[in-house]
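Can you give me the bound-state structure? Components:
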Amino acid sequence: MSEQEAEKVFQEKLDDEIKIEPKDWMPEKYRQTLIRQVSQHAHSEIVGMLPEGNWITRAPSLKRKAILLAKVQDEAGHGLYLYSATETLGITREQTINDLHSGKAKYSSIFNYPTLTWADIGAIGWLVDGAAILNQVMLTRTSYGPYARAMVRICKEESFHQRQGFDILFVLSKGTKEQKEMCQDAINRWWWPSLMMFGPHDKESTHSDQSMKWKIKRKSNDELRQNFVDMIAEQAKVLRMTLPDAELKWNAEKKHYDFGEINWEEFWNVVKGNGPCNKERLDTRRKAWEDGRWVREAADAYAEKKKVKRKAA
Amino acid sequence: MNNFFRKFYYGDIPEEKGSNNIVSSDAKTDWPLWEIFIRSKQGLDHKHVGSLHATDAQMAIENARDVYTRRMEGISIWVVESKYIHASNPDDAENFYEPAEDKVYRYPTFYDLPDEVKHM
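Here's the bound-state model for the whole set.
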């Protein structure tokens, strides 16, 4: 079969909603796009552990500490599901990790913002995980089998993340004057970066929409962002908090919320590495890798020793 | 400015050239890859759930517990080093499964029974 014919068969499979599995023929660009996207998704889970990990020792109660620990452990698990899916595309785990540490591979920019108060942990769960879930629910229907299955697993676990975040804010919203202020302040700081998570406007792309055609993505950035705003605007009322956007208003005609324009200059700045915590996050990852070296070596030596022992026995 | 005209999906950020901070990679390569199979409850088959890296089978089982059964999804774990899994070739599927295609008489619905016959 010629390359062209193979691509035609491939596209027909996708059009019939047949999933692509690791050993199936796929266009090289499909493979490369997925390696980039799935590994970035994995990196986002792993780097996402850092801003929250900061608060494990400072969580206000034992209950909150146990919950946060479980959540951060979940993020590690989600990273591993996704690294495992990436590997089925023919790239080694080591290469994937090296690409993160060298700065070649990216991760979601949201994690380059700092977590200044306890309320930020609530805002991350509610807003950041809330935004992530919308994207991830869509991805349970993505065309690449291993990615879709990892997403199903992740989505099952993720809704606890958003709820615990809302719960933190809900308690603060009924607290003292200072607690209420802290709650509002965290929402003010995380709102716009959360909207940025969905990426640039659809109209800014002049490229043909290959990811949609390949059914890697099933909804556009603006569609997902609108879903998010509609959902959060309603939930904010329950918290009796405001979202920092004077233009946010229900549009009865469209049956959606209208909202203001994102600061795209800030967005691209953070993507390019100039966010408040870009350097700190990568440095922390690299240090963790280096500091863990002796553990990896010890595990290797131990396995070797056991092997020798088994042979002797 | 070029960036503004590139598709940039959530979770799909264009890669740039790496910075100069190349981290030294370990002299040894990755630990072996293991495929993980989990029995979710007594009476059901083990089912493939994913893979992970580990130095040996014991470590693979312990890691599988932490990665794949944090919410009691399993009561039994099998691990198999990935290199020992042999698979059929998807490119041959058409020929390979062809023998089963024209044997409709293997299905009960192939047979027209008189209405008087019950419970068959």
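A couple of observations. The helical segments of chain B are 57-68, 93-96. Chain B has a mean pLDDT of 83.
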